[in-house]
Design goal:
Number of helices: 16
Number of domains: 1
Number of strands: 0
CATH topology: Triphosphoribosyl-dephospho-CoA protein
Low-confidence stretches: none
CATH class: Mainly Alpha
Radius of gyration: 18 Å
Strand content: under 5%
Length: 306
């Protein structure tokens, strides 16, 4: 649903914060940190601290004063400043910053929030990134300690890559085009934030009334499983392999079918079983979580309340 209100930059920033907090708080969410589960070096509280600390960066993004690469680097630095748990939101920042910048621009143009217009503007923004955005992406990556697959001819851990970027004048959008076949976040950039939009529609529909979800937690967990069932997680693929990612998606599909047949409450034991299995094997669908955050942001901006 579209809001009849024109949001100020501070409201856009709070919407981004709330999206990050809601996603990490949803439970049981198989394989990922939530309000019940921590990892050895990264805890639930680290995600809360990160989401809180990056507020000024999102406010600046919505004010339209800085480029995506610079904002990304600043978001990582602020996140690191407020917690010691390592990378918490790098993928989420890549999605949220262009969406927040787009929402802010449209608001300044006296447009009320509209999801289609927002994602179209966000796609325009990312397509017009340049080599300076790419360089700042690399600098942000270096600070964030992210697990990703290197793009062709550009080793993310090699300082010479920045020299190559300058030489070839490679934009950040072009980097994402190279990565789109094995990175869900990159594909969101190059395909107009389609999965974020789909998740937003799913979450909003669930919150407006259905047979098996009655609250925001259920809506997020179900949408997470639905997204995972249809889209093998590329973070799992990078950390393990394609087969592992596909196997996790198959198990998510079985749970989604069970939820749709028998209801959410009856399916919780199956969700917990998958959660425990993935946690034991240290398999975490991190890219799926990032896209859920993007969807939540769009839903919140669109007026969803709970």
């Amino acid at each position: 649903m579209d809001s009849c209100y024109k949001m100020q930059p501070s409201e856009v920033a709070r919407s981004a914060q709330l999206a990050m907090i809601l996603e990490v708080s949803a439970s049981p969410k198989p394989g990922n940190i939530d309000r019940i589960h921590d990892f050895a070096d990264t805890r639930y509280e680290h995600f809360l601290a990160s989401a809180t600390g990056v507020y000024p960066v999102f406010e600046r993004a919505a004010s339209g004063k800085e480029k995506i690469g610079e904002l990304l680097k600043e978001a990582v630095l602020e996140s690191n400043k407020w917690q010691k748990g390592g990378n918490t939101h790098f993928g989420a920042f890549l999605l949220l910053l262009p969406l927040a910048k787009a929402a802010g621009q449209l608001s300044q143009e006296n447009e009320t929030f509209d999801m289609k217009k927002t994602v179209e503007r966000a796609r325009w923004i990312v397509k017009h990134t340049d080599v300076e955005d790419s360089i700042n992406f690399y600098l942000a990556f270096e600070k964030a300690n992210v697990c990703v697959q290197d793009v062709k001819d550009l080793d993310l851990n090699d300082s010479d890559s920045i020299t190559n970027l300058r030489k070839n004048q490679t934009s950040l959008f072009e980097l994402m085009e190279i990565s789109e076949n094995y990175d869900m976040i990159a594909k969101e950039w190059t395909h107009g934030f389609k999965l974020c939009s789909r998740c937003s529609e799913q979450i909003t529909d669930l919150m407006e009334g259905n047979d098996f979800c009655t609250d925001i937690n259920c809506s997020i967990v179900y949408t997470f499983l639905k997204l995972l069932s249809n889209n093998p997680d590329t973070f799992i693929q990078t950390k393990f392999n394609r087969e592992t990612a596909a196997e996790v998606s198959e198990k998510a599909t079985a749970i989604v079918t069970h939820i749709e047949t028998y209801g959410y409450e009856a399916s919780i034991p199956s969700i917990i079983e998958l959660d425990e299995e993935l946690l034991k094997k240290k398999i975490n669908p991190g890219s799926t979580a990032d896209i859920i955050i993007g969807g939540l942001f769009l839903s919140i901006m669109g007026g969803m309340r709970f």
